């Protein structure tokens, strides 16, 4: 990984320049120090998403602002040509397929005392969101049938008068 000051993304470069120039320094030596600074002062702490989620479950005064800057997965490092690599791959795949990893994550992550956070992402449309459309369509259909009947009666009456 390249340092942020050498990033090809201008946003990251600007963030680094701003943070580097601040006095007193905005950098901390540990996650615990960063979280303590967030809780005790006007400070925002950039933290890896998994750790952020873990600490937010343990302390209800912490919150995540905005979305993720970047997403990465985790891996298990092994020496090249390790005989255990295939066994680990198969075991992890099996745990994923059985949903066991998600169950373990919920057990350890959501074991905190904080109430569930509201999900602010866009939700799918449900019947309560689009039910009004059907009411308008049905009312329009009824009005259209009524108008068609009036027009039919009108044309029928005028055709009888023209025949006489």
TrEMBL record:
Transmembrane segments: 130-154
InterPro entries attached to this UniProt entry: Ionotropic_Glu_rcpt, Iontro_rcpt_C
Keyword terms, alphabetized: Glycoprotein, Ion channel, Ion transport, Ligand-gated ion channel, Membrane, Receptor, Transmembrane, Transmembrane helix, Transport
Entry keyword Cytoplasm: no
Domain of life: Eukaryota
Chain ranges of the Ionotropic glutamate receptor C-terminal domain: 1-111
Membrane topology: Multi-pass membrane protein
Key word Coiled coil present: no
Localization of this protein: Membrane
GO CC, alphabetical: membrane
GO MF annotations in UniProt: ligand-gated monoatomic ion channel activity
Protein name: GRIK4 protein
Organism of origin: Pardalotus punctatus (spotted pardalote)
Species classification: Eukaryota, Metazoa, Chordata, Craniata, Vertebrata
